[in-house]
Specification:
Layout lengths: L5 E7 L3 H12 L6 E7 L4 H11 L6 E5 L7 H11 L4 E6 L2 E3 L3 H8 L4 E4 L3 E2 L2 H6 L2 H6 L5 H6 L9 H4 L2 H10 L11 E4 H6 L12 H12 L2 E4 L6 E3 L9 H16 L14
Parallel strand pairs: 1-2, 1-4, 2-3, 6-9, 7-10
Antiparallel strand pairs: 4-8, 5-10, 6-8
Length: 274
């Protein structure tokens, strides 16, 4: 079996139903030469059982990277997952983000030396999230506005994310006021660039640790490309028990230092100062 061309890191924590739907969404991909690396921030046995089951049911290789549960340590497990990737190019997303069938293809088509890619997500409410089944993922109905409206989705400009194609998606990528930042749910870049800035800052817990990585990539000399209307994923709803103001404030202070000192490197990343 030949080595895959792209590694997809999926972060998860004790969210079996959503992770299963996400993995099924990758089974529908038009571009199939990839591996999935699951960055597991301390999940319990049901996640292990699901991953072992899915390994026998999907066509792509799955690498499960896990550490003990010590609270929200996503940055730490993502760094371990980066090292576990066997390819030169890494796409990062989350265990609550289902990928439309062209998701990986778009990242492969837009990738370019000296750049990282910045995508977004389409957020679903809980009732619609729960209505999605394996069959609906395989039919791709859940990515169509008609099906979503039948489930109660409201009319919104954001629905353009799901309907825009070709020239219109490129135009909206150009016109969007949203910064092309590193977004942990939908971003990709070269492994050598991520290693060169020492990965994620492990002091950072919930709130902006992905943006801070992107800011260091900018200071390292990497530019970004906006693909939020081209690379589409659906965000399944869930409570955020790990969200707290203390963590957000601490992370904002770290990001402020990164910007002030134009830091391309963190001493608290993959390589530690001994």
């Amino acid at each position: 079996m030949s080595k895959p061309k792209i590694s997809i890191i999926i972060s998860t924590y004790n969210s079996v139903a959503w992770l299963e739907n996400v993995l099924w969404s990758y089974e529908t991909q038009t571009y199939q030469d990839f591996e999935i690396v699951i960055a597991d921030d301390g999940s319990k046995q049901p996640t292990f059982d699901l991953i072992e089951k899915m390994k026998t049911e999907v066509s792509f290789p799955i690498i499960h990277v896990w550490h003990e549960d010590e609270g929200f340590q996503k940055s730490r497990i993502l760094n371990k997952a980066i090292l576990a990737c066997t390819t030169d190019y890494i796409l990062m997303s989350d265990g609550d983000c289902m990928a439309r069938k062209d998701f990986v293809q778009v990242h492969m088509d837009f990738r370019e030396e000296g750049y990282f890619l910045s995508g977004g997500y389409f957020m679903l409410p809980m009732d619609i999230s729960k209505a999605i089944t394996k069959e609906i993922i395989f039919s791709q109905e859940c990515f169509k506005v008609k099906w979503l409206k039948a489930q109660g989705l409201k009319v919104s400009f954001k629905n353009n994310k799901l309907t825009a194609t070709g020239f219109r998606s490129k135009l909206l990528n150009t016109l969007t006021p949203t910064n092309a930042s590193w977004n942990g749910h939908n971003a990709s870049g070269w492994k050598k660039d991520i290693i060169a800035v020492n990965g994620f800052d492990e002091r950072m817990q919930y709130g902006g640790q992905d943006r801070e990585l992107g800011e260091r990539l900018f200071y390292y000399g990497i530019k970004s490309k906006q693909i939020r209307y081209s690379a589409i994923c659906l965000h399944l709803d869930h409570p955020r028990g790990y969200k707290n103001q203390e963590s957000i404030d601490k992370n904002l202070a770290i990001r402020a230092t990164t910007k002030k000192e134009k830091k391309a490197w963190t001493d608290f990343g993959i390589k530690k100062n001994s």
